[in-house]
């Protein structure tokens, strides 16, 4: 690559160059035909921006408040597993990179560093993502450990009753990484020579019976606010509100679970309408530009989460490049806001974007 990266996508190639193929494929890949993987990115390209001119933009304030926590920008590091496969310092380096940018980090349940190591590494606001294992005592223990270690919210990932079919992982016989949080409770060693060992581990552990009634159980074991991740329809958003969640995350798990789900940005408004402002709505999937963040905010998201770009930065050079990735997105968002005539995130409104559907209706 010629010169220093100027866009977060360039870190993907750097990651590809340094990582073993098995790990790179695990991080980069999606499920089956990877239709949704492409769509998550391309759907952003079909939304255009309606800028306003002659607004005094000499001061731009990107800060916002998420569940009571002030953050420098509406950007959260998404929960992604196994950071030590990308870099030896793993989630500790990621957390420090997020802390340096004053943004929130969500730690994955299947992290390679422990909850305690990440908590003591820096003082960034942290959310804890949880899966529900068949052994509910393990989930309960992890949620309590997160709460005791100063995590501020629980994200329940609800789109993974089973692992999606990731064909590169099957071909590569993807290993099941060492998850030190669970040492002494459950073995992550699953030896299957048939395909993805990670899939075999997931099949052994994930509880496919998890259902709406279990939100009450989760609420009974923690005082922390609960966000539900994986909502893609207005119907489920309504159910989530009825179940008493504190926030909703529109996500298709970075296109790694059910293929042929729509791009998240294309269903955001449906969810936002169902939620009627009762709780914050976040979005992830395919965010690669400041303009993508602007579009998500215009369509009603309170903040967005970024998954792969952070991992690619981590793989490329650890903490300093995690920081660089987040800063690039922050700088791009700041410039987008300036050029669109929005001084604060609250100034970004629905009338600042045109969706594909609107363009289509105009032509009729
Ligand atoms: C390598 C990888 C691991 C992931 N692990 C988790 C996880 O442990 N828990 C979870 O809720 N989501 C997980 N996700 C999904 C992310 O939280 C997020 O939804 C997705 O990465 C956003 O899309 P993006 O990568 O296009 O930004 C993972 C995604 C990737 C790419
Ligand atoms: C171990 C898996 C359940 C981690 C995950 O969520 C993912 O790889 O997408």
TrEMBL record:
The keyword Mitochondrion does not apply. It is an enzyme of class 1 (oxidoreductase). Residues 1-358 form the FMN hydroxy acid dehydrogenase domain. Its EC number is 1.1.3.15. Keywords: Flavoprotein, FMN, Oxidoreductase, Peroxisome. SUPFAM superfamilies: FMN-linked oxidoreductases. InterPro entries: Aldolase_TIM, Alpha-hydoxy_acid_DH_FMN, FMN-dep_DH, FMN_HAD, FMN_hydac_DH_AS. FMN binds at residues 108, 129, 157, 229, 251, 284-288, 307-308. Glyoxylate binds at residues 131, 166, 253, 256. Its cofactor is FMN. One of its GO terms (biological process) is hydrogen peroxide biosynthetic process. Its main location: other. The keyword Oxidoreductase applies. Transmembrane segments: none annotated. GO terms for molecular function: (S)-2-hydroxy-acid oxidase activity; FMN binding. Belongs to the FMN-dependent alpha-hydroxy acid dehydrogenase family. PANTHER family: (S)-2-HYDROXY-ACID OXIDASE (PTHR10578:SF125), S -2-HYDROXY-ACID OXIDASE-RELATED (PTHR10578). This is (S)-2-hydroxy-acid oxidase. It comes from Capsicum annuum (Capsicum pepper). The lineage of its organism: Eukaryota, Viridiplantae, Streptophyta, Embryophyta, Tracheophyta.
